User: Which sequence fits this backbone?
C-alpha cells in the first residue's frame, strides 16, 4: 500500500494569509470576526470572504474570515507582535487548508502534511511549540456551507 501525502504550505502573516498546494493558491487578509447579525457585514465586500464553522472537542466557532471579517464591526486582526493569538492562527490555518481541498479519509495511508511559516526572528522560540500544537489539533470544518471535513493535521 502506497502512502498518499497531500502537501500544503500555509503562511499566516500579520497582514495576509498565503497558502498553496503546488497547484492552487489562496491569499486573504489575516482577519476573523464572529459570524453574528452584524448590520454592516458584507456591505462593502461584494461577497468576498468566507463563513466558516469550526468544531473541536470543546467548542463550535462560527466565524467570518478574510475580507468579510474586515467589513465586520467586530473584526479581529493579527497584529505585528511576537505571539500570534493561537485562536486566530488556527482558524486561518484550517480555513486555508479547507479552501485548498485538504481532506482526510478513513484510509490511514492518506495523510495531510502542512508546512507553516513563522517569522525568522521568532522561529527558534516558537517552532517546537507550534509543531506540537498542530500535531494535536483535530477539528471539523465547513466553509461557506459546504460539506464538513475532519482534520487531524500531522
Assistant:
Amino acid at each position: 500500500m502506497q502512502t498518499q501525502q497531500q502537501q500544503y504550505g500555509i503562511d499566516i502573516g500579520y497582514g495576509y494569509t498565503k497558502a498553496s498546494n503546488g497547484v492552487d493558491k489562496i491569499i486573504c487578509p489575516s482577519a476573523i470576526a464572529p459570524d453574528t447579525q452584524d448590520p454592516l457585514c458584507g456591505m462593502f465586500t461584494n461577497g468576498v470572504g468566507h463563513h466558516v464553522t469550526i468544531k473541536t472537542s470543546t467548542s463550535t466557532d462560527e466565524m467570518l474570515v478574510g475580507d468579510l471579517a474586515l467589513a465586520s464591526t467586530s473584526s479581529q486582526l493579527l497584529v505585528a507582535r511576537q505571539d500570534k493569538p493561537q485562536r486566530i492562527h488556527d482558524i486561518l490555518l484550517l480555513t486555508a487548508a479547507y479552501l485548498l481541498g485538504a481532506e482526510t479519509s478513513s484510509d490511514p495511508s492518506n495523510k495531510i502534511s502542512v508546512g507553516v511559516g513563522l517569522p525568522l526572528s521568532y522561529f527558534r522560540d516558537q517552532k517546537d511549540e507550534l509543531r506540537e500544537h498542530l500535531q494535536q489539533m483535530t477539528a471539523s470544518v465547513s466553509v461557506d456551507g459546504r460539506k464538513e471535513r475532519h482534520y487531524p493535521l500531522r
Remarks:
- The radius of gyration is 15 Å.
- The longest strand covers residues 4-12.
- DSSP finds three helices and ten strands in the chain.
- The domain at 4-148 is CATH 3.30.420.40 (Nucleotidyltransferase; domain 5).
